[in-house]
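Hi there,

I know you've been waiting on this one. I reran it after we fixed the sequence typo, so this is the corrected version. Both the input and the resulting structure follow.
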Amino acid sequence: MGSSLSSQPELPEVDLKGKVIIVTGANAGIGYETAKSLAQMGAKVILACRSETKALGAIDRMKQEHNEEQEVKGRSKVKSQVEELDLVYMNLDLGSLASTTNFAESFKVRGTPLHALICNAGMAYGPDEPSVDGLEIHFQVNYLSHFLLILQLLPVLKSSGPNSRVVLVASLAYRFARWNEEDIQGTNENKTTIYSNTKLYQIMQMLALERRLEGSGIGIFSVHPGIVETELVKREGQRIPMMTSFFARLGMSTHFLRNPFKGALTTLHAVANPIYDGKTALYFENSKPHSLTSLPRDRWKQEHLWKYSVECLRNYITEDMLDIFTS
């Protein structure tokens, strides 16, 4: 889901040497291009993925592509700052709150700074069965586990600033969400609405965090990558609604879809463009800040979602994690 292919501003040359960045779901699609480009800019990039095999395969491909691009001037999509890419795999299964906690703890044990957290992983039209935690699976993978990850890593982001950033890969689909405080997880909704709701929640989370992190030096952004040709619209056997499938296939046949790098470009602007230093709570479309509709800006709904989310995570968060918002 998304908007038309209007022009995107070019990304300025950026040197990220010395920066550490986590990208969830970095083994394919937008996440792959995001991780590769940030590593080419000089960052150490943590690929936070569920499948070790796919993640290590992605790392090998990134390094091979980088070496090939180095041999031909102008072939690289971003200005490369390094000869070799610094890429690390760490296991993260967002379908499990325990796995999400283990990832955060394992990262903190490393003792490295964290300059950016990119919450890119997501799913649509997945199984009807709940997660291992008994939660609606799209709600957990797209939104709640990322919420937990942010809470657990905020102290590291705060100490690594100024200008540390959290980037939430949301979607224009938030405009098709249906707010129901009696059914936040959307267990009685169709898959298209559930997906849209999770993207709405990411944007509302950004705005709730903005208030709580004022003066912290952490920038919170959300982005709509556009209609992107990823595995989601190619995958065989998924129960994608007829009209959604039709428009996805139409996009591919008419070249309306963005390739994954063009989709990643909006994320790259949000995480690396220095013009956004000191900024926060920006929503991006076509690599530029864009206005939001009234629904995600409703403060009462933001706070209702925040309290509900904290309650869902009561066994995985501590008072210390929430104290950062008062310190």
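Quick highlight: The first strand starts at residue 20 and ends at 24.

Best,
R. S.
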